[in-house]
Amino acid sequence: MATSDMVTAQAGKTWLGHPRGLFLLFFAEMWERFSYYGMRAILIFYLTKHFLFGEDRAYLLYGAYTSLVYITPVIGGYLADRFLGPRKAVMAGGIFIAIGHFLIAITEGPGGQQPFYLNGFYLALASIIVGTGFLKANISVLVGELYPRDDHRRDPAFSIFYMGINMGGMLGPIVCGLLGELWGWSWGFGAAGVGMLLGLVMFVWLRPWLLGKGEPPAPQQLRQRTAAGLTQEWTIYVGAALGVVAIWLVIRYAELLGYALLGFSALTVIYILWHTLGTLGRVDRDRMFAALFLIALNPLFWGLFEQTGSSLNIFTDRNVDRVMLGWEVPASLFQSVNSVFIILLAPLFAWLWTILDQRRLEPSSPAKFGIGLILCGAGFLILVAGAAMAGENLTPVLFVFLIYLFHTMAELCFSPVGLSAMTRLSVSSMVGLVMGTWFLAMAAGNFIAGLIARATGSGESGDVTQVLDVYTKIGWFAVIVGGVVLLLSPFVTRMMHLDSISSNGEDQA
Length: 509
What we know:
The chain is mainly alpha-helical. Helices cover 76% and strands 2% of the residues. It is built from 17 helices and six strands. It has helices at residues 3-11, 20-50, 55-84, 86-106, 115-145, 154-183, 185-205, 219-222, 232-250, 254-279, 282-305, 311-319, 337-358, 365-390, 398-425, 431-455, 465-496, and strands at 14-15, 18-19, 320-321, 323-324, 327-328, 395-396. A hairpin with a 2-residue loop joins β1 (14-15) and β2 (18-19). The longest helix is centred in the last third of the chain and has 32 residues, at 465-496. The radius of gyration is 22 Å and the shape is globular. Residues 1-9 have low confidence and may be disordered.
């Protein structure tokens, strides 16, 4: 059957009122997130317990890694916009990620910072970082391409997609955490690689479900030869491999890398502003300003939220009573709690937004961001209250569940809503770049998260006063900023001009 015939045959088929391609992307992203969150759950312990890094260095390296997996989507989004298209970019990214996870597994080596094994670990991180750059922004773009811009199913679709992310986020820490902490680190990282391979297999096998979306903008140009004698497509892939080497060389300089990230972030925003002011009409210009306002809130939210994998992970390991039903639960398994809550609450939030929309009561995207920041700050304050109640005893595990519950509700007001807003507000020629900039702002948040984690100090002595003091300050700060965002939300909503968006993406007369 010809490709066009296959697309036509699939076009009318839906599941639960959504294109079947949404569920292909759901499962592909589920396995990619299985690999990422499984690896992330044990990474801080691998650094401190296997390589014997001090906490300061471990937090900064962890922050550098999580920053880079969000900064490279800016480049990956640009390459997909101009050359590869989202589908090919997702495929390339999955291959690099799988290689990275398997490389960590086979270069574990004995404990301590032996140069050969440490450099193998850095090379593996670099491969995962480059792969995520290709995959992360572009798979979200594919979700957006399945729906017209004025389709009211878009926010529910991104909530469903976000459930797929968090099914992987739930399973990854459980499987990789148990294997890594109880059987051996290489087993945990190897399992993460297997998860990514499963995602790739599904993505290739069910490609017709994408209805021809995400193909290269100029396929003929992609096949042209470059000065190196390779096709344009393969030149990009070779360049990505060289990028792995470059990141391998610089990732060990975590703090310097973080500040370079902030400079790169500023240059990217300047470029978007220049393009917006110089080429766009008033309505599109307003929308881009609204998108940049939402992007500006990203570093704050993720700087707080991403304590989960670093300082909160260490706090849970050392200062929480983790005995449940007679078994001391490994700390890495608590990384799955957020995803469990997402799975339970995402359908409820998707239903809630739909019902409120039908009654014209749904909060705007900026208002949801304000609510999310308030909930995030409240989570920290609840954990601090629980630790204070415990006194010199270990903090009851209930309060770890509560901080994850509040942070999960905050995330549902923030992340899927933001993904939907970026695809809706950006112009077609910049959608990949804007989505990449959304993740770039998340990268800045992850670097800030590393600095916050370092400020919490060491909990090795059992004195958690400094940790709780930092958590109190950031908790109240988030609550106050969230309140200000709520006050500004009507003005920002007007700048989005949602009433003039038509199904084909053009302004209505």
